[in-house]
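ok here's IFNL3 protein, seq below lol
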Amino acid sequence: MLRLYLTLVLVLGASLGAAFPTDKPKKSCSLSKYRFLVPHELKAVQKMKEQFEEIMLLSDRKCNTRLFHRKWKIAELSVPDRVMLVEAELDLTTTVLELPAAPRFAETRQEPLTFLTQAREDLRACMATESPSHQPSGKLRHWLQKLQMAKETETSGCLEASAILHLFQVLNDLRCAALRQQCT
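and the structure came out like this:
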C-alpha cells in the first residue's frame, strides 16, 4: 500500500510539473500604454521642462546642438525604425536626467525619469522580441550617427538642454511608435 501511495505521489508530481511549466514566459511587446499618456505624467514632464527653462534663463549656456531637428518626420519610418529612434531618444534623455543636479530640480525630475526609463525598457524589450536583427534605414542610421557624434563632442549641459527642451517631441515620437501604424 505504501508503495502504491509513493508511486501515485510521484506520478501526480510529475504531471503537475508538466502542467505548470517553470520556464519564464517570453516578455511580449506591448507599447499600447504609450498611445495615450496619463495626464499626471504629462504634468510632471511639463513642470520639469518649465523649471529647467527657468534655470536656463539664469545661465549663460550656449549650445549649437540640433539633435532633434530632422528633415523628415517619424511617420516616414518603418515601425521598427520608429521604435529604434525613440529608444535612442529616451536613452539620451534618461542618461542626462540621471546626471547630478540641484536638489530642487533633482526632485522635480524624479517622476519623469521613472516614466521615461520604463518606456525605454519597454522599447528595448520590443526590439529584442520583434526585431532583434533589424538594421536601421539610411535616414535613421544618419540620425543615430549624428546622435553618437553629439554624445562625444557636446557638453553634458548642452545634451541635457537639448533633451529636456525637446521632451514633448520625444513623447510624441513614443506615441507614434506605439501606434504601429501611420501617425502624424
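fwiw The chain has one domain: 39-60+71-182. kinda neat tbh
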